[in-house]
Write a structure and sequence with these properties.
Elements: H1 7-13, H2 15-20, H3 25-28, H4 40-46, H5 49-56, H6 61-73, E1 76-77, E2 88-89, H7 92-109, H8 114-129, H9 133-146, H10 149-165, H11 169-181, H12 189-202, H13 206-219, H14 224-232
Parallel strand pairs: 1-2
Length: 237
């Protein structure tokens, strides 16, 4: 992939990032536990994970194995292949089984490597998508504890979102504060602060949340419109 592509172009090309968005399905179906915009931070962070990997990867057997697993994840679903030679599966269930098997092999064969942790994070996302919250949390925690700073930060953000959805607000706030203090290529300070504002709003601290939203709105980032909308839904003074 050419290094001079813009971030927007990379996002358009990166199907792994789209597949990784499945991480938020569990949260989006539990709106009573998470506020309306609480899942956005995880979407914003997770969508760049695959892009970051492709931008920094070098050729090796490990990366080839991970690339093959991503090919499975990107395969079409249907009775026939959309194009001759294009990977596809007859049903979504068949594809899901193949995806889990492929990433499990990478995580097992290359445990302790960057590729292994990318695979484990992806498995955590798939587990969450399937409603296996404890399994997802375990995988995210392992990545958070042992992966490099970038993928560890993404796993920590996922854990913070789980804590937020499950009303474990002190635990979630501790994680996002640390992420804001130690931003990475995959989780920016703005993303961490946005979730912090969501936590404060849910903790009945709307004015503290408002201050953070105002700061984000002034930054004119991709998250700024979300901050403006979320701020408008806070209780008025």
């Amino acid at each position: 992939m050419a290094s001079n592509l813009t971030r927007k172009e990379l996002l358009k090309q990166d199907k792994f990032a789209v597949e990784a968005e499945h991480t938020v399905h569990y949260l989006s179906e539990h709106r009573k536990e998470a506020t309306r915009y609480g899942i956005i931070v995880l979407v914003v962070a997770v969508i760049v994970a695959g892009v970051y990997y492709y931008r920094t990867m070098q050729h090796s057997a490990r990366q080839q194995a991970l690339g093959e697993a991503m090919t499975v994840a990107n395969a079409a679903v249907g009775a026939t292949a959309p194009q001759p030679g294009t990977p596809y599966y007859p049903t979504q269930a068949a594809k899901d089984d193949a995806v889990v098997k492929a990433f499990t092999k990478v995580a097992s064969d290359y445990g302790g490597t960057e590729e292994g942790y990318v695979a484990e994070y992806y498995l955590g996302a798939k587990a969450l998508d399937a409603g296996k919250v404890d399994d997802a949390r375990k995988k995210f925690q392992d990545v958070a504890d042992h992966a490099n700073a970038n993928y560890a930060s993404l796993a920590k953000l996922s854990l913070a979102q789980l804590d937020f959805a499950e009303n474990r607000l002190p635990e979630a706030e501790k994680l996002v504060k640390d992420l804001a203090d130690h931003p990475t290529d995959l989780v920016s300070k703005t993303q961490a602060n946005f979730l912090h504002a969501q936590i404060l709003a849910m903790s009945a601290k709307p004015e503290e949340a408002r201050k953070i939203y105002q700061q984000i709105a002034q930054e004119k980032s991709d998250v700024s419109p979300l901050a403006v909308t979320a701020m408008s839904e806070l209780p008025q003074k």
